[in-house]
Amino acid sequence: MRARSVVIVVFEGVQSLDVTGPLEVFAGAVQASGQRDAYRVITASPGGGPVRSHSGLRLLPDTDLAEVGPVHTLVVPGGEGTRLVDPALVARIRELAGRAERVVSVCTGAFLLAEAGLLAGRRATTHWAYGEELARRFPDVEVDPDPIHVRDGRIATSAGVTAGIDLALALVEEDLGRKTALLVARHLVVFLRRPGNQAQFSTQLAAQVAARQPLREVQRWIAEHPEADLSVEALAGRSALSPRHFARAFAAEVGVTPGRYVDGVRLEAARRLLEDTDDGIEEIARSCGYGTPEAMRRAFVRALAAPPAEYRRRFRPEPTGGH
Question: Which residue of 22, 239, 246, 257 is surrounded by the most CB atoms within 10 Å?
Answer without folding.
Answer: 22
